[in-house]
Amino acid sequence: MNNDAIGVFDSGMGGLTAVKELNRLLPNENIIYLGDTARVPYGSRSRETVMRYARQDAEFLRKHKIKMIIAACGTVSSVVGTKPFIEDMPFTGVILPAAQAACAATKNGRIGVIGTPATIRSGSYAKAIKSVNPHVSVIGNSCPLFVHLVENGYTDRGNKITRLAAEEYLEPIKAENVDTLILGCTHYPVIKDIISDVMGEKVTLISSGMEAAKYAHSCLFERDLLSDRTEMGKNIFYVSDSTELFKENAENFLGHPVEGEVFSCSLGE
Length: 269
What we know:
By secondary structure, this protein is of the alpha/beta class. It is 43% helix and 18% strand.
């Protein structure tokens, strides 16, 4: 058993969808979350910049007592690929867990993927899916405005701006008759109702953050690293920009007001 915290980082607040699932699956675990809200989004950055940011994020988490790191960011996960830059403790991104879930869900062998431009450009989801099932067809499309819309609270199911963006981004994928769609950025589940409305009820949506949390649960269980505390775990949040803005918008991701302390932090350039 190990009572150290689970470390989670993301470019902004999207990783809170993973935190939400971790709280549900592992209610007795402490979680330390880092949201690099000052530099969001990572999806429009170069590969080199994304890796530099990811190392800085992980380095910050390592200053605390943690037993696992989750890169709850599709862009970081796509750049890191299958060779994690963290080897001395359990680590996961969001790509392989989501790919495995999508392959298990599809019935017609046609899987769609949406993500940031960097994620789609990397082809990382397609590679991961093909490694699980080489016979599956993968159709991807980038949704560059989604992160901005979610971070700024344009998340209501009836929001016309977000719905218009969704219709434009999803049309090419819908036309390919996919029956499963990976939400390849942890921001996207916040607008899953809009995405589902556009794609249709017959399309199964896979949340990359949720699947990463499930993978973390299995990983810690297999290594006998789960906490043995009996009381509820605590969440501690660090953000590189305004704590007040974080608190205002975090409810959209968590489904409830922030429970836990929120601190401002600086990340090395």
